[in-house]
Amino acid sequence: MTSRGTQVRVASPVPARPPLSVDTLAAMQKLMGRYPRPRSALLPMLYLVQAEHGFVSREGMKEVGKLLGLSAAEIAAVATFYTMFKRRPCGTWLLSVCTNVSCDLAGGTKIYRRLKEALGAETEETTADGLFTVEEVECLGACDGAPVLQVNYENYEHVTEDLALSLIESLRAGNVPQPTRGERPKESNAVSRRLSSVEAKP
Amino acid sequence: MTEQTPVVTGRFGAESSDTYDGYTRTGGYEGLRAALEMSPDQIIDMVKAAGLRGRGGAGFPTGVKWGFIPRERKPTYLVCNADEGEPGTFKDRELMERDPHQLIEGIAIASYAIEAAQAYIYCRGEFAFAGRQLERAIAEAYDQGILGKRVAGSDYSLDVILHRGAGAYICGEETALLESLEGKRGQPRLRPPFPATNGLYDQPTVVNNVETLSTVPHIIKNGADWFKQWGTEKSPGTKMFCVSGDVERPGNYEGPLGMPVREVIDGFAGGVKGGKKLKAFTPGGSSTPLLTAAHLDAGMDFESIAAAGSLLGTGAIIVLAEDACMVRATYRFMKFYEHESCGKCTPCREGCFWLSQVLHRIENGSGRSEDMKLLTDVSNNIFGRSFCAFGDGAVSPVLSSVKYFADEYTEHIAKKGCPFER
Ligand SMILES: Cc1cc2nc3c(=O)[nH]c(=O)nc-3n(C[C@H](O)[C@H](O)[C@H](O)COP(=O)(O)O)c2cc1C
Ligand code: FES
Q: pLDDT tens, A83-140?
C-alpha cells in the first residue's frame, strides 16, 4: 500500500531477534507443504515470524527467504504491503479503532482521539509500559455495530468514549472483558499464530 | 416492520446453526448430496437457469462464469473471496460467523461443478472470529466425511484450505487476491487473460464471493424456479442488504432483489435515526455513487440502481441523515482509497492522494474557489484510466457528492470551514 499521507514517525530502533525456534521452522515446513507451490505459504509464514518475534523481524524475514529461495528484499516487499504485519514490537493489546464513515457517524473518530489522549500515545506508537498500541483502521466489516473497536482483532461494538476508557482500565488491571462475539482476545503472539492457519485442517 | 425473506440468512436464528449437527438438523448438506448425483454440467445449467448473479459487487452470472472453465485443462481451482472490505459491507462476515457450513457446502458444490480438487478460502485477516468459525467448521466437515477423500461417500475428493489475508482492501479484487494467495504483494493483474483460463498458478480458476457460494446449496436443493420466485427477471433471487450509518436498526436484512430502497431503510432498518430526514445513501458500499432522497423508490437490483445512476455493488446501504456533512464523509471515504491504493498505477496512486488533500482542505476551512473543478478534473483522470476497478470506485463518492451537494462544498469554501455541528 502507498505509505505517503500516513504519518511517518521516527521511533526507537527495531530490536534484533534470535533465530527462529525449531518448532516454528517445523510449522513453516508444514505450511509450505500445504500448497501446490510453497511460496503461497509466505503470508502464513510471516504470521509465524510475528508470533515468535512479536513483529516481522529482519532476522525472521531472512529465514523465510532462505526456506522459499527468495531474497530478503523480495520478502520485505511483500511484508510491507500488508497492514497486519507489524514492523516493530507492538503492545500486548493492539487497539484498532475504525473511523470509516459508518463508525465516524457514530463517534468513531472521537473515540480514537480520546484513546490516544488517555494513553498518551500517537498512532501506531506503543505505551511505555508495553501494554497498548493504538491504530486507526478502515472499515472492519461490522458497521452494524458502529462504532467498532478491536482488541487484538476481537470486536467490541457500539462502544462509547467511556466504554473505551473503561476497557483499557480493565485490560490494565488484567481483566479481559468479553467481546461482542466469540472468545476473549488472546495475547498477540497467540493471535498471530492462529492467523497463520497452521492448526487448520487439512 | 417489513418481513424478511430468509434464504442464506435462514439459519441465523436457529440454535447451534454454526455446528455440523445444527446444520444437518436443518437440511444442511442436502444440496451437496443432490449435486453429487448430478453431472457437473447439469449443476452449471441449473445455476445458469436460476440466474444467480455474483454477490461480490459486479453481479456477473455465476453459472456462466463456471461454464467458462475449460474441461481439458487440469488442475482447476475454486477460490472463495472472503476478503470483505468494501466500506459499509458486513454480510460475508456474518455468514461465516453464523453459518460456516452453508459456505462450505456451496464451495463443495461449486468445486465439483468445475472439477476442482482444491478450493481456497481467502478470509480477511481482521475477521478473527469468522476465521475461527470457518476453521472449526472445516475440521468438522473433514471429520464427518464431507471434505477430503470421497466427499459425502462419493468418488469425488476435495480439500478446502483456509488462508488468511493480512490487511489490504485491494486483495478483494480477484486478481490481486490470486497474487496474494501466491505469496506476492496484492496487486491486480492485467486482464485478459481472465482467471477462468489463467488464474491461480496460471490454471483455470473460479473466484466467487461468500454470499454467492452460500446461495448455491439452496438453488441445487430447491431448483431454479424456486429461486426465481423472488427478484426481478434480470436480478432473480434474494440478497442480503447491509444497512448502517444513521438508521434506527443497523444490520443485515435479506429481501428479494428489486425491493425499493425505502422499504429496506424504513421497513427493515427502522428508518433514519431520530426521525431525521435522509440526505444521502450509498446503495452498494462506498465505491458506488451516492444517491439521495429522490432515489428512495428505486429497486435494489442491478438494473434499477444503475438506472438511478449508481451501482448495486455489495448491497451495502450507508445512510447519511440531514445533519451529516457530505464533505466530511467524502473526505473520509477518500482517505480510505488513498490508504488502500496499491500503488501500481499512477492515476490511482497519485490521484487518490491529491483528492484526499483537496477534500481535507475544504473540510478544514482552506478550500479555494477552484477546488470543486479540481476535484472533478482529478476524478475524471482516474475514472476509466486506472489499472483496475478500484479507481472507478474511489472517485464515486467524490463525483456523486459534487453532483448532488455542490452547495455544501460552496458553503465550506465561502465560510472557511464546516457549517455542520455534528
Ligand atoms: C477494489 C475491489 C475490491 C473488491 N473486493 C471484494 C471483496 O472484498 N469481496 C468480494 O467478494 N469481491 C470483491 N471484489 C469483486 C471481485 O473482484 C470479484 O468480482 C468477485 O469476488 C467475484 O465473485 P462473485 O462473482 O461471486 O461476485 C472487489 C473488486 C474490486 C475492484
Ligand atoms: S465503518 Fe466501521 S466497521 Fe464499517
A: 999 999 999 999 999 999 999 999 999 999 999 999 998 888 899 999 999 999 999 9
CA dihedral of residues B43, B46, B51, B55 (deg, nearest 10) = -30
Write out B112-179 in H/E/C secondary structure: HHCCCCEEEEEECCCCHHHHHHHHHHHHHHHHCCCCECCHHHCCCCEEEEEEECCCCHHHHCHHHHHH
Q: Looking at the complex, does the CB of residue B193 fall below 8 Å from at least one CB of chain A?
A: no
| Residue of A98, A112, A135, A150 to mutate, ligand 2, most atoms within 8 A of C-beta | A98
N- to C-terminal Cα distance for chain B?
A: 29
Domain range holding A137?
A: 93-186
For residue A97, list its beta bridge partners. Answer: A136, A149
Phi then psi dihedrals of residue B166, to 5 deg? -140, 25
- The values of phi and psi at residue B287, to 5°, are -85, 5
What are the phi and psi torsion angles at B253 (to 5°)? -135, 140
Q: What is the mean pLDDT of chain B?
A: 98
What is d(CA A143, CA A108) in angstroms, rounded to the nearest whole number? 11
* φ/ψ of residue B309, rounded to 5: 100, 15
Flag whether A46 is in a domain: yes
At B363, give phi and psi (nearest 5°): -65, -35
B342 touches chain A (CB under 8 A): yes
Instruction: Please name each of the domains of chain B with its CATH number.
Output: 20-227 (3.40.50.11540), 241-321 (3.10.20.600), 326-415 (1.20.1440.230)
A104 and A180 together in one domain: yes
Provide the chain B residues 241-280 that lie in CB contact (below 8 A) with chain A. Answer: 242-246, 250-252
- Cβ(B195)–Cβ(B208) under 8 Å? no
Of A1, A36, A84, the CB nearest to B339: A1
- Looking at the structure, do residues A78 and A140 belong to the same domain, yes or no? no
Q: Which residue has the cell 435479506?
A: B254
* Bridging pattern class, strands A149-151 and A93-98: antiparallel
Q: Give the number of domains in chain A.
A: 2
- The phi-psi region of residue B417 (left if phi > 0; otherwise alpha if psi is between -120 and 50; otherwise beta) is left
Q: Is residue A131 part of a domain?
A: yes
- pLDDT tens track for B303-359: 999 999 999 999 999 999 999 999 999 999 999 999 999 999 999 999 999 999 999
Q: Is the CB of B173 inside a 6 Å radius of any atom of ligand 1?
A: yes
User: What are the pLDDT digits (tens) for B150-199?
Assistant: 999 999 999 999 999 999 999 999 999 999 999 999 999 999 999 999 99
The interface predicted TM-score of the complex, written ipTM, equals: 0.97
Please check whether residues A61 and A118 belong to one and the same domain.
Answer: no
- Measured CA to CA, the distance from residue B200 to residue B186 in angstroms comes to 13
Q: Which residues of A155-166 are buried (b: 16+ CB within 10 A; e: fewer)?
A: bbbebebeebbe
Distance CA A19, CA A88 (A): 17
DSSP β-bridge partners for residue A98? A137
